[in-house]
Design a protein that fits this description.
The chain is α/β, with parallel strands linked by helices. The protein has a single domain, classed as Metallo-beta-lactamase, Chain A (4-Layer Sandwich), CATH 3.60.15. Helix 4 packs parallel to helix 5. The longest helix has 13 residues. The model has no long low-confidence stretch (mean pLDDT 96).
Length: 231
């Protein structure tokens, strides 16, 4: 069984077989989405901007968790106190494998809303709990994700630095995950539109709208029956 906890914005924790992977524990308006004492085995920030990397370094140090990211992000984590033996640069399309978890990063980008241009951002395929989870962080582009198979797709829909709703829906239509989870919306109607359009146009994909602190439990039952429950 896989448990997915949502903390808001792009922050999630994935837990299976007593292993926890924490994604993008950002800081918004000066407040961390995830407490410094959160216990994880692996912490990943998909880019170096505060709303993604947040207090990742503090969480990594406190829980002695491996910190994963691209070169710029791991360099920032090192500046913030993460020891070299806990740091690992995710090279594009090179799997990072530990017991019960395989993580593969893909080179994507987010829009730099302040300076213009783009900022490097990792998309991730995470294999754990007998499931494949696609997670795009703050991406504004698809990259290779339109070619990848996954059971669950976690995709930003807020516009600005990331996808518009229609682009996130289009990716779900093309990749056909069993579950599509929106994140990072900037207006209350955006997740509702995502859900409506997925139901209408993406057969086989179930939209799941998560609020902060909700937990989604997902599993393959009896070997081939896909089940999920949102609490």
């Amino acid at each position: 069984m896989l448990k997915i906890t949502y903390f808001g914005h792009t922050a999630f924790a994935l837990e299976a077989k007593e292993t926890t992977v924490l994604l993008n524990p950002g800081i918004l308006e000066g407040e961390p989405l995830v407490p410094d004492d959160f216990q994880a085995r692996i912490v990943i920030a998909t880019n170096h901007v505060d709303d993604a990397i947040g207090n990742s370094a503090a969480i990594s140090v406190n829980s002695k968790a491996w910190f994963l990211g691209n070169k710029e992000t791991t360099a920032k984590a090192a500046e913030q106190g993460v020891k070299p033996w806990l740091l690992h640069v995710l090279e594009p399309e090179v799997p990072y494998v530990v017991p019960d978890v395989t993580i593969t990063g893909y080179s994507l980008a987010r829009i730099d809303e302040e300076a213009g241009g783009r900022i490097d951002n990792l998309g991730l395929i995470i294999e754990m709990g007998d499931l494949r989870i696609g997670y795009l962080g703050d991406s504004a582009i698809r990259g290779l994700f339109e070619q990848l198979a996954m059971d669950i797709l976690i995709v930003p829909i807020g516009g600005g630095a990331t996808f518009q709703v229609k682009d996130a829906v289009s990716l779900c239509i093309d990749t056909q995950p069993r579950i599509g989870i929106p994140m990072r919306w900037s207006a209350e109607d955006q997740p509702k539109k995502f859900s409506k359009y997925i139901e209408q146009f993406s057969k086989g994909t179930k939209p799941v709208l998560m609020e902060p602190n909700q937990i989604l439990s997902v599993q393959w039952a009896a070997g081939n029956e896909f089940r999920y429950e949102l609490n």
